[in-house]
Design goal:
It contains 9 helices and 10 strands. It has 260 residues and is of the alpha/beta class. It has a domain of 174 residues: P-loop containing nucleotide triphosphate hydrolases (Rossmann fold). The strands form 2 sheets. A 6-stranded mixed beta sheet has the order 6-7-8-3-9-10, sandwiched between helices. A hairpin with a 2-residue loop joins strand 4 and strand 5. Helix 4 packs across helix 5 and helix 5 runs parallel beside helix 6. The two termini are 26 Å apart.
Length: 260
C-alpha cells in the first residue's frame, strides 16, 4: 500500500476532529475520492496527513510506503512524495513561485542529487503556467498574492505537474471554478495519474468526479470513514444525499466532531 491510515484519532484545541479513521490507498496512479457533509472531518484529515502542527494525533498512525510518517514534519512528508493542495491556498508575501519551487525541488531531490538547473526549472514552470492560461509574471510574483481563487487553484496544479508527487491530496480543488476550469483540472489529474501520481480528491460534489471517475470512494461522517466502495456510491449520494448512507448509530449522534 502507498498510504495506510490506521485507527487515526486527532484533536485541534479541545476538539476531537478525527475519531478512528482507517483508510488505504494502494497507489500506482490510482484515484480515490473522499466525500462527506460539512463538518465531517475531511479537511482535518488532509491537515493531519500533512503534519499540520495545530493538530495532535492522539491514537493511530499514518504509513506511507510502509514507513510510519506520523512523527515527520510537513517538509519531510513532502520529501517522501506527499503533495497537499489546500482548500484555501495561502498567500506568501515576498516569496515568489520560482523561489518556492526551487526550494521544493531541492528538498525532493536531496538524496538523488538530480535537481534540474534553475533555468530548466524556470522553463518548465513557464510551460505549465502557459498550459493553465497563466502569464509568466506569476513566476516572479509572490505566490498567490493578488491571485483570484481560480488562479490559486490553477497555480497549485502547476506546482503538482512540476513536482510529480507520489500522492496528491487535493482538498476541494474544484471549489470556485467554472466548468471550463474544472474540465482542465480533471484533464490534468488524468494526465498526472497516467504518469504515476496517485490522488485523494476531497470534494462535496459529483461534477469533478464526472470527468475523473475514482476507483474508490470513501464517505466520511463524524470524523470517521463509514463507507468505502466504487463509483456507484457517488450516484447514490446524488440521488439520496448522505442520510441513507449513515447507519442508525451515527444518526443517533454517537460520533460528533466540531471542525471540518
Amino acid at each position: 500500500m502507498l498510504l495506510e491510515v490506521k485507527d487515526l484519532t486527532a484533536e485541534i484545541g479541545e476538539s476531537k476532529v478525527l475519531d478512528g479513521v482507517t483508510l488505504s490507498h494502494k497507489g500506482g496512479g490510482g484515484i480515490h475520492a473522499l466525500m462527506g457533509p460539512n463538518g465531517s472531518g475531511k479537511s482535518s484529515l488532509c491537515n493531519v496527513l500533512m503534519g499540520h502542527p495545530d493538530y495532535r494525533v492522539k491514537q493511530g498512525k499514518i504509513e506511507f510506503s510502509n514507513k510510519d510518517i506520523s512523527g515527520l514534519a510537513p517538509e519531510e512528508r513532502a520529501a517522501e512524495g506527499l503533495f497537499w493542495g489546500a482548500q484555501q491556498p495561502r498567500e506568501i508575501p515576498g516569496v515568489s513561485l520560482a523561489q518556492v519551487m526551487r526550494s521544493a525541488v531541492r528538498t525532493r531531490d536531496t538524496e538523488t542529487e538530480s535537481a534540474p538547473a534553475s533555468s530548466e526549472l524556470a522553463e518548465e514552470l513557464r510551460t505549465q503556467l502557459d498550459n493553465f492560461g497563466l502569464g509568466s509574471d506569476f513566476l516572479r510574483r509572490p505566490l498567490n498574492e493578488g491571485a483570484s481563487g481560480g488562479e490559486k487553484k490553477r497555480l497549485e496544479m502547476v506546482q503538482l505537474m512540476v513536482l510529480k508527487p507520489r500522492l496528491a491530496v487535493l482538498d476541494e480543488i474544484d471549489s470556485g471554478l467554472d466548468i471550463d476550469a474544472i474540465r482542465q483540472i480533471a484533464e490534468t489529474i488524468t494526465q498526472a495519474s497516467k504518469q504515476g501520481t496517485s490522488f485523494l480528491l476531497v470534494t462535496h460534489y459529483k461534477r469533478l468526479l464526472e470527468y475523473v471517475k475514482p476507483e474508490q470512494v470513501h464517505i466520511m461522517v463524524g470524523g470517521r470513514i463509514i463507507k468505502s466502495g466504487g463509483y456507484s456510491i457517488v450516484d447514490q449520494l446524488e440521488q439520496e444525499g448522505y442520510k441513507n448512507l449513515i447507519d442508525p448509530e451515527e444518526k443517533d449522534g454517537e460520533v460528533t466532531v466540531s471542525a471540518s
